[in-house]
Amino acid sequence: MTQSTPPRDRDPGHDRVRGRLMQQSLAALLDRVRGARDVLPHLAALEQALGERGTAAIAGIAPQHLTRICTQLSSLPLPEGDQPLQDLQERLLNALEASRRPRGEPAFDPERTVVIREISHSEFMAAAAEEGGAQG
Known about the structure:
Layout: H1 12-32, H2 36-39, H3 41-53, H4 56-59, H5 63-74, H6 83-100, H7 121-135
């Protein structure tokens, strides 16, 4: 009988290590900007939470705080080659997007997509007349 290993993203130890890497990169970023922790308290709180809970800390952030954290993080000069910070930013943006969607609703629903196209004046008048006739 073989025992399967959990996916890396679901492994709590991996999530803690990943969270600590994010914390270290965020701490270095906040250290570079004088007074950043005082001016950006949401990021300072995230820095601490990542160290304590790993990436699970992101899932526990309330939507209104996610918005503030994303805004504060985007206001800082993010180093291009810092993978943990890029991973953190991506996870925060994904969490923010998920929080704005009603539960169970997919990110994109082709049945609910509105298509806008230009039409001529005569096509518009014909559609308006048809709509008016259908209502009356």
